[in-house]
Amino acid sequence: MEQEPLKILLIEHDASFARYVGEMLRQTRELSADMQSATDLKSGFSALGRDRFDVLLLDLCIPDGAGLANVSLIRAEAPRLPIIAAGDSDDETVALEAVQAGAQDYLVKSQLTPSWLERSIRYAMERHRVDTALLDAEQKYHTVFDHLVEGIFQTTPEGRYLMANAALARIYGYASPEDLIQNVTDIGQRLYVQPGRREEFVRLMQEQDTITRFESQIFRKDGSIIWISENCRAVRDARGQLLYYEGTVEDITQRRQAEEDLRNSEALYHSLVETIPQNIFRKDLAGRFTFGNQQFCRTLNRSLSEILGKTDADFFPPGLAAKYQQDDLRVMATGQTFATVEEHLPPGGDRMYVQVVKTPIVGTDGQVLGLQGIFWDITAERLAEENIRKANGLLAQSRQELHARNVEMEEELKMASQIQLTMLPQQYPSFPASAASGESAFQFTHRYLPTGAVGGDFFSVSALSDAEAVVFICDVAGHGVRSALITAMIRALVEELAPLASQPGQFLTKLNGDLLAILKPIGEPLFTTAFYLVANSQTRLVRYANAGHPRPIHLRRSQGCAEFLADPPGKRQPLGLFEDAVFQTSEFTLAPRDLVMLFTDGLYDVEGPDKTLGTPALVLAGVERRLRARAPQLFDELLEEIRRFSATQSFADDVCLVGMDFNPAPPPGCNT
To answer: Domain range spanning residue 247?
Structure first.
């Protein structure tokens, strides 16, 4: 299916330059584009409101504009539109300011060519896609962060907030984390109710570096007081210097109130024990009260003389009185103890829950004479149980929501894994192109084992001509989504650097510069190694360059040996770290039946049962034991051998192996 042309909006007041840009777009080799022009910023905004565009080309010097501020204005109007700024100045400072303002690239108008314009458009779209993906991932992270129930904080030792989430702001009664950070600039004075409480917190942190369940009363923004529980740890730098405290806060006001209520109840209980704390009474066979202790008298708000000889019907509502009498009859008829929890409504009092135990009173002749009852108030316990049931219900709901989020994230990672696999070679080129796969001068084998759903290893195999093959392998530090995004960018850059494909040293030098340009605005460069070779089946010459990557192994089957390739001259430097890095080209000669094996460090980055660490020498020894094995068999057996060496029987990092067998066709007239 033919790809739809890119829709490009050019905001440019110079009509001749606008025509020049349109002509250059028509001259591009691999870019199909429809361009719409706007002569000023106002008409440019109108075009953005009417239509959707894939890329915006912006002249920084349009008459009704504001220079570099135009970039920010357009970003606010169309935040997901890649912007390429153009100007007359060939000044690196201007270019950097344009990118910092939100542009994906800056072009000098006098230096513009069709190929440069095409590259800039592709680069801008790819970078914008990566930036958008990172922003979406960050937004998803902040959504989860701000919807946690627990408060999260970072503070300086002096008592100033560096960071707080929305939950902490809600607990403390502030409108937002920013509101909290702005208003609470001295935690010891502004937050804690008890003087010296912050100093006690700091003292414990200095002694232990961590603290758990540090419970305190604090002032909310409106002046109300709540109880909190803090868990915290000290964060230090590599030299052990304290940077800040970070931890979590939980509102435990309800629990502390319940504990306080319980303590009061227990204190009341023990004080009443000294004067017969429970409500105790006795009844005869007719249900008349024959005894009541002082607590029971207080419960009924009657003196003992007013209780004796009366029945439940004289003190309680008819429904309750009938139930009490029915329970009494059961105890006296069966002679068995009866225990229950029931509602109780003393005369003139509030409804309450009581624990009741009734036992028969048996005479010396074994006959039941009446019963004795004891009951006590358990209203608080019943309410606490109800609160616990409600809390468990909320907890179950939270677990379900968390499970749903986990399922969603797993599905996204599964899709990312499938997309990454499609970036790897699905089939290999033949040399020459007309040769059948089994008759190609170069034959390739690979094994790719990511440790997670997505990985940071990548390789490619391509043809420069019928005689020249290119093999590229790289390893981005770490493994996971961030590493996978960097490999996707490297893949795009490799395709863009096709003009330098025949020069390994120049190729890696240019790749390093382009990768630095992408990673520098992010502020977090990633350690990336790479190896690049070009092999010629006619001259049998292999030229290569190495960017800090593990040295490939050269199997010289005709000589019965295997050895590491020599490092090219110069420093061993990775990609994406040093702007002045220059990579040199080395070369060696192939013999028939030779195999060149490229691999990432995940192949030997394992630890044996005796804490022995894997090294490249471990890989070379495994290869030397299998010099005559075909590449697929060699790779599978080597992977299994290193798995068995590992204490965990698995690999800790992503693993990628690529093999290039050299089997040239025999000279014409030669019988094999």
So the answer is: 151-251
